[in-house]
Specification:
mainly beta; 5-stranded mixed sheet; about 140 residues; OB fold (Dihydrolipoamide Acetyltransferase, E2P)
Length: about 140
């Protein structure tokens, strides 16, 4: 992680609703906390930079899915993408049938592409998150019916 990446991360953190962020990567630890912030909301990333083509698979925690039983929520903070790359076909469209475990989107965090998978079978009712926008932890990305 270079200093420019740290500044970019801090800019995104500053514009988010998070109150605290801790990252441990390549033996370096970074923790930031907004003034007056309590422990009510925090996000922790652990990992190492990986430029390999294979993305990580991230499955939302059970408490994230409990907000709406038919919603796919963001398991981490990052940039939401509907497709694997610019100009490529989106993973899912409204009206499409998905099965538990199907890749429905990607969230880029710390230069890692994290596959977001369907938490249950259903039909895509709405794609709530905007392609290319920053999403917060536990934010609803996609609604299923």
């Amino acid at each position: 992680m270079n200093i420019n990446e740290v500044y970019q991360l801090m800019d995104k953190f500053e514009g988010s609703t998070l109150s605290e962020l801790s990252i441990e990567m390549e033996g370096v630890k970074l923790s930031v906390k907004k003034p007056g912030a309590g422990i009510e909301q925090a996000s922790t990333f652990k990992g190492r930079e990986n430029n390999a083509a294979a993305p990580q698979t991230v499955t939302p925690a059970p408490e994230a899915a409990s907000k709406s039983s038919k919603a796919i929520n963001a398991p981490l903070v990052g940039t939401f993408y509907r497709a694997a790359g610019p100009g490529e076909k989106p993973f899912v469209e409204v009206g499409q049938q998905v099965r538990k475990g199907d890749v429905v989107a990607i969230i880029e965090a710390m230069k890692l592409m994290n596959e977001i998978t369907a938490t249950e079978d259903g039909i895509v009712e709405e794609i709530v998150a905007e392609d290319g926008n920053l999403v917060e932890y536990n934010e609803i990305l996609i609604r299923l019916s």
